[in-house]
């Protein structure tokens, strides 16, 4: 199967997903939601939109133009997919197939239906992909591995797959930088980065850096439009639990009725909580972010003003070259 055929198959997948009828969209969301209560209609539709964005022909051409992909002897590359947000393992699948290798996929128990539907669509688009994408329960006989999990799971993966080439990902989260001059409209866009997928993704903002003296109401008021998130049963349970802990322990915090803010140096925060930390100067900010770089997936700022950041509202729309953990997945695959 030539590279051009593989690219065309994914472009056609993007077209199909972009043109889904309302009934097809609803069916996908219903199947996903029946398996995972966190996968709401909105979350599924957002994940599908993210894939169509990634599969734009111009983006694929720009991305793949930086690599020399040849049709060499394909290796079996196992991919242990996460299931924290819908279709989170898609990019790894895309990289493996486009690199010319065979994807041996272990689906997450939390995202079996939706990911399987995407793979079945690829089979229908080009039956040759049946030999390039295999769904397996175990990853015993693979030549390389890409695995995503918790910090504890990562230690297991590192040991179990220690004898083969591997990318092992751990817990990460994302942070926002506020300079104090943002408009309410810009802060509202930041709300998308905080609340999309209920904050469960590694590209969700769970830590916010604020300039000293910043008025918290300038952050809380513009995100009021996201208040309906509190009506989700699992989210409100987490919110109530964390709020009760803060109250019992008499920990100072801010609360707008659906989001809790508390000073904490950690990047990773619980569901319904965002950590905040104040900075005095730009150098102080740089130092704080550098100290946490191993835990930061991406940084967002208004219009992307902070170096290496993306604009508010864009955290969950990565381009195909926006690799998880800043590890070039495609280059890794081409090197094995």
Structure description:
The chain is α/β, with parallel strands linked by helices and 336 residues long. It has two domains: 169 residues, Aldehyde Dehydrogenase, Chain A, domain 1, CATH 3.40.605; 139 residues, Aldehyde Dehydrogenase, Chain A, domain 2, CATH 3.40.309.10. The chain has twelve helices and twelve strands. It has a seven-stranded mixed β-sheet with strand order 8-9-10-7-6-11-12, sandwiched between helices. Strands 3-2-1-4-5 form a five-stranded parallel β-sheet, with helices on both faces. Helix 1 packs antiparallel against helix 5, helix 2 crosses helix 3 and helix 5 packs parallel to helix 12. The longest helix is centred in the N-terminal third of the chain and has 16 residues. The mean pLDDT is 96.
Key features of this structure:
336 residues, alpha/beta, Aldehyde Dehydrogenase, Chain A, domain 2, 2 domains, 16% strand
Brief rundown of the structure:
The protein is an alpha/beta fold and 336 residues long.
Number of structural units classed as domains: 2
- Give the C-alpha Rg: 21 Å
* Helix-residue proportion: 40-55%
Low-confidence stretches: none
From the coordinates shown, what is the CATH architecture of the largest domain? Answer: 3-Layer(aba) Sandwich
Count of helical stretches: 12
The secondary-structure element order is HHHHEHEHEEHEEHEHHEEEHEEH
Provide the CATH top-level class of the largest domain: Alpha Beta
Strand content is 15-25%
- The overall strand count is 12
Q: Sheet bearing the most strands, described?
A: 7 strands, mixed
- Strand order of the main beta sheet, please? 8-9-10-7-6-11-12
Overall mean confidence score, pLDDT: 96
Q: Any idea what the CATH superfamily of the largest domain is called?
A: Aldehyde Dehydrogenase, Chain A, domain 1
CATH topology of the largest domain: Aldehyde Dehydrogenase, Chain A, domain 1
- Structural class designation: alpha/beta
> Which overall shape is indicated by the principal axes computed on the Cα atoms?
globular
User: Span between N and C termini?
Assistant: 19 Å
